[in-house]
Amino acid sequence: MPFFEVLKNRAQSQINALLDKNSGNVNPAGQNNNHIHAQLLSGAESSGFNNYKRTLTKDDKFREQFNLADDQTLIADINAEIGFVTAPLPDGPNKPSVDQQVLYSGKLFLSESYLIFISANEPRVCSFTLPLLTIKRVERLPSKAYVFALSIQIYHGLTYSIQFIGLKSTCDRFCAALKNQLKSNLPLIKTMKPFLNTLYSEYLINMIELKHHDSTSAQPTTIETPVAGLGQIFKYPGDARKLRDKSKMRLWLEYLQTHGRNLTIIKQATFYKLIRVGLPNRLRGELWELSSGSMYLRLSNQGEYDRILQENKDKHSYAIEEIEKDLNRSLPEYPAYQSSEGIERLRRVLTVYSWKNPDVGYCQAMNIVVAALLIYMSEEQAFWCLNNLCDRLLPGYYSRTMYGTLLDQKVFESLVEKTMPILWNHLDKNDVQLSVVSLPWFLSIFVNSMPLVYAFRIVDIFFLEGPKTLFQVALAVLRINGEELLEISDDGAVISVLKNYFLTLDLSAHPKSPNESLRSITRFQELMVVAFKEFSGISEEMIVELRAKHQDKILEGIETFAKRNQIRSLLKPKNFTSEQLSIVYDKFYEAVLSTRELDYQLDQKIPLKKDTHHNREKSDSDAVSTTAHHSEMDEITFYKFLSTLADWIDINDPSLFEPSARGDSDGDDFLSRLFHNFDTEKTGYLSLQNVVDGLDKLVETDLLSSINHFFELYSPCVEGKLHKVNRDTILRMSEGLLFLTKPWREGEKLDTISMEQLEDLDQKRLQQLSLMESFEEQNNDSLDNEDIIGHDDILFDDNDGKSIKSVKSYKSTKSAQTSSSISPQPSGSRSKQVNSNTNADGKPSADFKRDEENILHEQSARYLSAVSSFIQRCFEYATPEKEEVLIDLSDSNEDKEQEICNNNVALDPSHPLSIDLATFRMVILADETLEMFFSKSLPLSMLANLNNSRQGLLGIDNPTRFKNTLKDVFDGLVTDGMRVANEVKRRIDDGAKNTKGRSSSQGNNNHGDDDDEKVVDEDVSQKDRDLLEDL
């Protein structure tokens, strides 16, 4: 049977390993999304977030089960039977000892630093977590039954006998792994004794051995007493006699002598009973850190507390300022915190933690918990216990968002609704907020809610059992006071009733009972019985399941609250509404999130990269913020963010978003200047406030302000004044204008002039259609369709007389024109013009396509001409910086090329040129297209993108017409280009023939007179009038 059991366990372990591996590879980024999401919500409190929906790996479960540090992984495990034998006791053989013959079946685990055992059926029967550095000797035991067995002797005198259950190959692999880990831990053995000297249990046992040694030795020795908590100086809370503190100490001393102590203690049923009845004051701090697992953290990080304290001595931070405010409000009823000794210890622990974990720093209620710990612990013990509390036991409780506390309040309400539906309905009906009452219980672990002597009894069990203790006690409080709570209907009365109950926990729970035994039961004893008997079904698995259920809702609420607060705290922009600010906020964090997700996928090691370059050093007099900059974007992320708002950034352009592909293009230069202009603090990163301020200037509709901002991108502002820009910078400006105007030059967007031209064209065609309809009505009354020409064949002069069209061609588009004129369309929308100029098949008419192509051609030429004119005017009006010529050595006969350079200053690099802001304004205002671009086209296009989706934004007010016809238009452009090329070729050929004819018949110019006679009979056309404009 053991053989098949081993095969079964081996197969199950392999399947679990495979599932864990696959679950980790299915969606690694998906798991990281929640982690990053929590960072964005809480600013920089990622350590306070725990994703309860993620699938735990085998190592995660292993660390969580045995309270181990994050650097521990499961190396090997095997089924085994373990027995114990103690060393001879100094007080004689009659003292109780562990029976050598009792064997406990269970599983043995091996990590980098620990050998761990847990019994198979009930973990409380037998378990231990043994640091490898405490092992003194390992040897193989001989066995006639060919059982693979080891004998392990540890530092405190206990001897473990281990019989492995499994295949020989499995046993060999486990022993080989154990041997390797023992070798790697050899250098750490020297650190064990200094650590043991800080533990009071070690001191007690050594004192007993010392007394026995002194009785047989002539030279007495002394042992230094370890550092104790404040209770040793200012007395411990409660009456030690009533609490039977000496009896508890004797029971613990007996257990420690027979079952090991501190690092080597064996946890059996008696261990849990002794904790339930209450810990002795002198051992309470040590057993707290043993039960919670912080003892193992302190063992592996010896000296770190003192190192952090010394490295950050005399430094200041925002967290330290907050700590100073709360020092005198930390358990003021306890005498130690009315003296400098207690305040100084509390200050040091909280300050060191703020430097150790800057993401959390300092948060409300942390001072209450640390003040309670310091009564029974040294500073170093309290520091590591606080680390374990914030990171593992109560994640998210002590953070700015209080995410963990809010989530557990939702879980608590769910449990109340499930276990006490009548009370829940009553509270819900009267709108009593249960979280207002219960939140301080969870946040301070009941320390700030009930007398300290009773609160510490709950803390004893909390460190042993975990967070479920808080839910069990809180439910028991409501159950006991349920009848009284059903009679009240407001929050204040509920708080008053429960506060009075906590103040009377020392009174009898049954004062009127005739039974003396019942009268001796206090209210606190009743509370403990109800909590851990009636609500024993509240398990850790149930709590985790409920946390996962309510996690998204809590995150959503925190996100909404954080978003509203952050937007409210921003400096009010001039050109953005609150709705637009909300969109900027969302897009900002979407860009940051996408970049971090990409970093995670590329790295696959850590969920987030730390921005070490953000930890800027400051002088001691400056306040150093302990909150890391987790919500800022770098330059590449800024480009991605801006591409969701600006049409002049091509999302698919790799040169903008891939650092390796970036060059010296127009877009690179302009966007880089824009980023550094937004970065007012010159940190290389943009905050949300930087982005809002920069965008506010970018969408400015005031013409002069918009021009000034563009000039500012190229001219550094020194002491509030903009300097002149030189020749190279003028060229950079023109490149920037080409980059910005690209959507208008390529026909992706239409400016105001083009929109007006299209609207005029539609109006003219609608008028012509109306005339044709009137003509039809008049002729239907007087003419017979069979006797005269059909009105569908009547010819009509289209637009400017360039083409003749029949009525029939207009009737084919009648239904589309009518529907487009009736249906509502947004102002300036081009969709109306598409519908009003389509034929019966729903396709744009040839005339409309040709007219639209002409408009696009004109717009493109207009913007190209504007940028060209900009360069020409800049160099024309630029101020030359002439150097004084002392002696003219130039020759009178200069080269023509030099003369050309002198005449065109733009081509002469030897003569520097520059323009100032006034000249730049003049150049922009001299061109109608650029003036309209800065005052309307550029700002309005970005504002429109804030109000609409990025897709389909081709006009100022989101016209969608061009989306469907753009391909047809470009096809038409290509066709026209080929047609024009053929026409030009034909004319060249004709010109060549005419030239040849003229050469053969010189002096014959009478054909010109014939052309002149024809001109007399023709009207003046628009082309003729264009000659006047050219003059």
Automatic annotation (TrEMBL):
Pfam families registered for this protein in UniProt: GRAM (PF02893), RabGAP-TBC (PF00566)
Domain Rab-GAP TBC: 278-466
Keywords: GTPase activation
Molecular-function GO terms, alphabetical: calcium ion binding; GTPase activator activity; small GTPase binding
Composition skew (Low complexity), residue ranges: 809-832
SMART domains assigned to the protein according to its UniProt record, in alphabetical order: GRAM, TBC
Biased composition (Acidic residues): 1009-1019
Positions of the UniProt region annotated as Disordered: 609-628, 807-848, 985-1031
A single cellular component GO annotation: site of polarized growth
Biased segments, Polar residues type: 997-1006
Residues annotated as domain EF-hand: 666-701
Biased composition (Basic and acidic residues): 1020-1031
Family matches, as PANTHER family: RAB GTPASE-ACTIVATING PROTEIN 1-LIKE, TBC1 DOMAIN FAMILY MEMBER 2B
Protein name, entry field: TBC-domain-containing protein
The species this protein was found in: Nadsonia fulvescens var. elongata DSM 6958
UniProt lineage: Eukaryota, Fungi, Dikarya, Ascomycota, Saccharomycotina
